[in-house]
Amino acid sequence: MPLPLKYNVRHVARRWKTTSMTILAIALVVAIFICMLALSNGITHAFRISGEPRNVIVLRSGSNAETNSAVERTVYDIAKVLPGIARDKDGNALVTAETINIATLPKKTGGGGNASIRGFGPMSMAMRPQIKLVAGRMPDPALHELIVGSGAAERFANTEIGDEIKLVKSKWKIVGRFEAENSAFSSELWGDVDRLNLEFDRTVYSSLLMQADSIEARDALIKAFKDDQRLSKLEGQPEAGYYEKQTAQTAKPIEFLGMLISIIMAIGAVFAAMNAMYASISSRAWEISTLRVIGFSRFSIILSFCLESLFVGFIGGVIGALLALPINGVTTGTTSWSTFSELAFAFRITPSLVLGGIVFASLIGVIGGFLPAIQASRIAIVDGLKGEG
Amino acid sequence: MGQVGFDQGENTISHLHQNLGYEKSSPFGSLLEMAIVAQTTHVSKVYKLAAAEVVALDEVNIVVNEGDFLALMGPSGSGKSTLLHLIAGIDRPSSGTCSVLNFNLGTMSESELAKWRNQYVGFVFQSFNLVPVLSALENVELPLLLTGLSSSKRKAQAKTALELVGLADRMDHTPRQLSGGQQQRIAIARAIATDPQLILCDEPTGNLDSVSADAVLEIFHTLNTQLGKTIIMVTHDPHAARAAKEVRYLEKGKLLPAGEKPKDW
Amino acid sequence: MTLATYMFKNALRNKRRTALTAISLAISLTVVIFLKTILLQMTDPPEPKRPSARFVVRHRVSLTMGLPRSNEQKIREMEGIVDVTPMQWFQGIYKDEKPENWFARFAVDPDSFFRVYDNLKPASEEQFQAFRKTRTGCLVGRKLEERYGFKIGDTITIRGDIFDANPELKVVGFYDVTDDQPMNDWLVFQIKYLDEMLGETTRVSSFFALADSPQRLETLLPAIEERFRNSDAEVKAETEKAFQMSFLEMMGNVTGLINTLVTVVVFAVLLIAASTMALTIKERTREVATLKALGFSRGHILGLVVGEGIIVSTIGGLLGIGGSYVVLPRPGLLAACAAGAIVAIIIGVLMMAISFILEMKQDSKVRFIASKYGAIIAICIGVVITGLLVATMPTLDWLSMSGGYVMAMNVRPQTGLLGLGITVVVGVFSSFWPAFQASRMSVLDGLRKVD
Ligand SMILES: Nc1ncnc2c1ncn2[C@@H]1O[C@H](COP(=O)(O)OP(=O)(O)OP(=O)(O)O)[C@@H](O)[C@H]1O
Ligand SMILES: [Mg+2]
Question: Based on CB atoms within 10 Å of each CB, which residue in B210, C111, C337, C442 is the most buried?
């Protein structure tokens, strides 16, 4: 016969002053856990939604990032007529050649940061549905004009519409701002590809982006690219996969650090929960014996105390999640190690992360309560009734 | 009364007289001149509860002279403990004044009271209240830690007090290793360690069997008659009260005139 | 006995509780010291013993832009220049893209390289000459020699990523770092070989140069930037330290992140300590009241309890700080401890499961061993495994086993002091509130409490 849960809740409520400290300690550990994973989640998310499933990105074989790839102009014309290429409603092939340039721009917080300046073509916007112009207008290909991603606008100085920034030789005017759902693109500044190539003294593109009709057509396209003799120095890969790989370098260390710290701190929290439970049990010895006399089994005592401790952990988890929640959506930045340029991203707390945090906290509670619960169940009926020793 | 390990009798007591006399100013200008140890004048204690007022003490006037051994008796809830606490300075009256050992307790701050208790008052509880992690000797030494005596003097004095209660041979034992009666005797040794003038006890024999109780009472008797300590003892036990020189009764917060008992007592 | 003895006895009264609190403080402190050490290592690299006159010239817009090689001569002609050397960051991939196989690879000019890097010395004159004369030769730092066991004559193939070239390099020797600059894990090969592979004289990511004195840099750096102003490659000239720091700056707001983490960790451990202190004092309510009846004042009680808090935190603090000093600089030991701890946790949980099952069956003896000594057994096994791992350490490649995340960290004195500070703060603050409450509690309330 299990003890009613009400019994435990009452006890937790009765010693709320000391319990609340244990709960808060667990809550902080869970908050660390959620925040750190929200951080790495944010980076992962930024990269993940950068890749459009049907897009294929073409880089020079051997290079693993757009920044150090090179694609000849001629390839653009070959790619346009490959089978499986999607077309927009006007019949234009969804293929675009782009360049990525890195330029040091002054940051709002002082100092300089590396900004990604993307040269884009007429089809680029159409192939990336996550990107939307939210203010101003698109750049005129004939002029030194740029549009700026919301993440970049937040981090770099002089990026309001109407501002001018010097790149290599000339001043470029900001004429618009776009949002990209916190993807990696929102950290970029975009301008016409050929005009930017002139600015950066480039004769080649960084990458070629093609959109296929469907996922199957995409894989066929990659194969066709591989088989084409004229394209032997190049390699196509799903855009999604390309960005996924970048995740590993930038998000994994943070995830590792977050997990490490959470687990170590969890040990501390387990100890705190253990102390609280041992104390509670020793002050309830008399009561426990009475319960045993009444006829509750050892098992129900163990279960009862484990549940009580789980309850404490659970509340800690909920509070921890609430503490962490405000950080959701807060943008911050790091450097993407694959492009060596600034990457703005937002902390991202998902329902499963919240759930994970609460489970984590409940585990802290259960593990912390287990040994004390066993001890409680072992209090000899007679000893307990004798009163405090 | 019982026969407790108090073999050395007179010897120990004279020994104690020599040893307990560390420098401390007497509260009295001259001991002979001033005979009143504790005096309460129109002392009342009222607890204001949400529902009603509880009058724990009602206009109590009591005088305890030097060398008295007073037992306070009365029904449960009659205010015995309350009165004792007021005299010990751990509680303050709602009205009236307590003057103990020539100190007007009402005018003293809490820290002054603490220091005063340490020097002049010994307190014995019903439930011993020994510190479980300290040995008997260390428990007795506890109040001496506040006196500024040297470590060796403290130890000597604590030992003397233990000898007085007949437990010198148990000084290294922890409370857990001692019986209830022995624990209470250690507690008495702790109360007299600083050689206080006044000893207050709240049902010191309440938790003891009759043999242990007798031993404790015997010690009180010795402290009173041989060392001239003034003792106020709250008790329920008529047998214990008989050890005292005088018994006064409280009823519903009122102190009955000397020699008078509650009706159904 | 003294009041201090009494305080100590109080602190050790409930040994299990004190141990648990102290250990959680110790591990939290280790986390704090670990984080702070990483932070310091990143934001404050060791200063060169003597001020360096070395500086960097690179493209104003970004490192990826590159400078024409002809700039070398132009820089050399400036006043106050002792020497200039072109350096091209080759990057590339060795073996695979795993972080543990990541180290710096540069294409350099052998002669001027060692003149500008006067703190790097080829292992011998013969090796230096071999490096100069072998077209595909390379020199590697001592740390790489240790890590990979490179020997003279080995071939190292680097797959190019920035460059469309896959150099096959022959190890012709090693170099030593004569100061404490973190430069002992570089691979350098001839820039001529790179030019050859690419079929052109490549632009270089940077020129490193040596001025005749550190003071000279103040005027020299702006002068160089001025010299190339309005050329087709404007430059940025900065000290070597500023150059290093610019990479660290790229980490984003790591300082903020780590400091926030440290604060939260300290706060959490404060709560852990405070909750146990509160429990402890609450259980001792009667005793505190008794002490007050014996004449202990508020101040005495406050002192006794805070003192006890400081004793408990000091036990944990010394454990944590000492442990950090021993473990953090030794990645092998750190990994061994981590492995040992994980094993201990797994065994501990297993023990719990076993004891739970046995608890249900009535096999009292085994049950007793499993649940009562389960934790101790688990810890012992963890310690033994840690010991075994440490003993076999030299034969295991810890760095690669840890996925490249574990690195040697030297705890600096200021970090140790910070740990001590946190220890004291935790000791005082965790016990202050319970102490304050205990000191304020009336004797009567305390005595009335029947626990
Ligand atoms: N803190 C309090 N709040 C309200 N009423 C109180 C409080 N303390 C004591 N009283 C009341 O004061 C009265 C006297 O209490 P006191 O403890 O002095 O009785 P007592 O004579 O010592 O009784 P007993 O023999 O049972 O110990 C009682 O009616 C009690 O209920
Ligand atoms: Mg009473």
Answer: C337
